[in-house]
## 1
Amino acid sequence: MITELSEYLSSEFGIQFKNFDLLAEAFTQASYVNEHPKEHLKFYERIEFLGDAVLQLYVSEYIYQRYPELPQGKLTRLRAAMVQEKSFAAFARECHFDQYIRLGKGEEMAGARNRDSLLCDIFESFIGALYLDQGRDAVKKFIARVIFPKLDLGWFDHAVDSKTSLQEFLQRDGDVDIEYHLLSEGGTENAPEFTVNVSMDGQVIGEGTGSSKKHAEMAAAQAALKKLRQDKQ
Amino acid sequence: MITELSEYLSSEFGIQFKNFDLLAEAFTQASYVNEHPKEHLKFYERIEFLGDAVLQLYVSEYIYQRYPELPQGKLTRLRAAMVQEKSFAAFARECHFDQYIRLGKGEEMAGARNRDSLLCDIFESFIGALYLDQGRDAVKKFIARVIFPKLDLGWFDHAVDSKTSLQEFLQRDGDVDIEYHLLSEGGTENAPEFTVNVSMDGQVIGEGTGSSKKHAEMAAAQAALKKLRQDKQ
């Protein structure tokens, strides 16, 4: 199974693992080790400990560089969204890592192979093994393919407000002028309604409505982001 | 002040900072920025965000390599002891970083310069700046001087049990045979007392007493560690 995994990593990601024992360790759960006492196997937890810290640093470094105006609080929220269990489990599934985990029979029957917490652990332990075997540049290349594009796809928008996301999206390729204009102010005293549009260098790119000017601006930014991302695909 | 700091870093640590703005940012608190609005200064928080992750990784990597037999739970406890606020504040004081922080007058009066939370932040932001300006090898060299020797001095012993600490201490330079022998079992039924000694390659290096065999072994390991560390100094 480790041979298959190694071939898959090579063909899919161009990664040629040198140390197969390390790779095996990264994909082996304790339950499997316990069922094969004579093989003196190791399970993934120590490598996962390292991989967790590797991911923390390179995700932090990337968003620190990419969002030079984002204050610490928002950087922290964004990182938390990116490195959480749900995100890592999704990356592990996308990379088909679930197919290669070595599990004990009981855990297999209990459905561990599709459990977010295990998939998250395996994603971290894979990164730890990659770091030890191939070095940091290999890790950076791998997460530049698997994690960072999700920023542009809006996976982590909830962690940063839409106006900030739109600004970062538009200003990646140079300075642009982003403006919000109040189009109408209506509704009733108890249910006010504001409509706002957002323009880039004078061209309207989105419109939104909300119960306050700020909410309307957020909605306009969200609409613009959605449209821009569709156009990009 | 940044000139003085840069000269100090050069003479004391052999670190020649290239980007003085970055170094200034790492040592500037928001209160100082607010008092000097015309200078358009930046404060340390974004760099601290990065430095925190840098420290997490290189501390994790070091203890992962140094303690190849330590299970994940103990690695996590040890790392938590090493990267906590109290530890980082102590390192910052030892490096005299407190003298170089740029604070607003109110914060200065309130004694912020000697506050653990600020000193911890500054230690992290210094590491972040060092990483950005000089790269990871400079960071590893710096923490190999400032942080890792504290492991041998026993700063973090509380995070790992004494028997483990003693084993790691003795086995750093190669395999040795560590044995615990029960010397006596006495006391009363309600207050039993065990005495144990510990030997390395047949030579007794410590003795301890406790209310159980395990406690006595811990005490013996602790005594041996204390003695060995004294001899080493």
## 2
Amino acid sequence: MQKKAVILANGAFPTHEIPLKELKESKHIICCDGAINKLEKAGLEPFAIIGDLDSLDSELKWKYRDIIYHFSNQDTNDLTKAVEWCIANKFNEIAIVGATGNRDDHMIGNVFLLPQYAKKVRVKMLTSYGMFTPIVRSKNFESYTRQQVSIFSPNRDTLITTANLRYALTNQQLEMMWQGTLNESMGDSFRIEFEGGPLIIYQEY
Amino acid sequence: MQKKAVILANGAFPTHEIPLKELKESKHIICCDGAINKLEKAGLEPFAIIGDLDSLDSELKWKYRDIIYHFSNQDTNDLTKAVEWCIANKFNEIAIVGATGNRDDHMIGNVFLLPQYAKKVRVKMLTSYGMFTPIVRSKNFESYTRQQVSIFSPNRDTLITTANLRYALTNQQLEMMWQGTLNESMGDSFRIEFEGGPLIIYQEY
């Protein structure tokens, strides 16, 4: 059975309609720590609040005492704690919003954490401009003609083959992180096949 | 002799005072293609305009006809063309502004292009939140106590040692792109030593 959560990370609160819609229609909003302040301002209710709670004032701590889950693990960041909580609570599909639009190093770190989550759960990250999807096996993507697509290959020796992208890859490695950027879909779907991996696929909205 | 250029990339026009100051005080603003529209709105003068000029209207093409440099190389992006133009014209220090705050895949691609430039020229990228500096050899950084610092290691086998950062590395590899994020300076300088490389250092303002 599909059990879907939306994680609100502690970056900039979503402004684009697509991540906003995910958030507003979700029955299970999982809040990273300080993001609860922004969620309250938006008039939305959290299903759970995860983090070390350093940044929560005592009024909020009391108000949400039944749904606050405290983790003191210093080895993972708030986003990872929230993902792990979702997995432990049997959510099998996760959309992450609010993870960008703030410190650039956090944004890059969060994007490159996605493959680690993808080993355990279906996950995507929705930003103000597009969607990151980490994949651990070959996959077809829904698309539209001329959709801008970028492929990131953290393990540089991964052999990648694409179908229906303008600049085709055939058993090719992306040795540099920028080499798979600026591609484009040729129709209403495209396919990424690979040996090794994982990969991170970005699709502009 | 120091000859410094500021490249205005075609992302979001800078709003933070630090990249804005770089831009306003520069005698050599090198504009990536469509960014000229934003530079004009800000009342600033370009020293050169680089790109394939697809997005320039004919009035601008005429106005700046003497300083427009056209490249039709499809294998590099506009930012790389601008950097190469600077190197060819004997600039030996480059600050890149306006390269973030727009499509997330462009932002990541641009950040991971920096080491390629760093082999040939001193370069840094200034965003709304901090500064990326690619390094090809060990380096001391000016800092301040509690400055947030992240280290990105595109070649995962690079052995890194840090001095005066809160979470010290000693001949360690960063196998995952997020592993070097969320560090912190302990004073008015820190040092990054490494074998292999290159690395990209992020310092929050």
